[in-house]
């Protein structure tokens, strides 16, 4: 990501987050390296560009700050660490870094499912976020498959009127509309 001539290498930050050196940290989290990467991220922005770059800069800084502060002693598979990872993936999606967003979200969904199970609301919500990223990438088939599964499981476990189920239904209706299946999209939206 380039902002006013500065380059932010999120892959390095994410690598620092999950770490690869288990010698000093049994939870596989390399916080000193992450902090070093965050401190090195500087955005030298010209005065005329500052107004445009500031919201994006702040969003990325807030996401990294949240991730850094959210890693509990129990490690990267803790609920808060997983939520921070999904937050960062969504921030990357919003900033247009869709490939990196997808990679982080796929990993987070897999970890949510491993830790909480396939039918847990947290795992299902993470899948909804991954579907949004797929849709943003134009991977409509993948988005629809995730949304169909998520909606079906949420309706069965949480009930048709639960807020999460309604969100999944809305996303699935969007998938159907994008596939020109308007009758089914309207049926789902009206339900």
Blueprint of the fold:
Blueprint: E1 2-3, E2 6-7, H1 10-18, H2 31-40, H3 47-70, H4 79-94, H5 98-116, H6 121-137, H7 140-158, H8 163-178, H9 182-190
Antiparallel strand pairs: 1-2
Helix pairs in contact: 1-2, 2-3, 3-4, 4-5, 4-6, 5-6, 6-7, 6-8, 7-8, 8-9
Explained architecture:
The radius of gyration is 19 Å and the shape is globular. Helices cover 73% and strands 2% of the residues. A two-stranded antiparallel ribbon has the order 1-2. It starts with a strand and ends with a helix. It is built from nine helices and two strands. The chain has helices at residues 10-18, 31-40, 47-70, 79-94, 98-116, 121-137, 140-158, 163-178, 182-190, and strands spanning 2-3, 6-7. Helix 1 (10-18) packs antiparallel against helix 2 and helix 5 packs antiparallel against helix 6 (121-137). The protein is mainly alpha-helical.
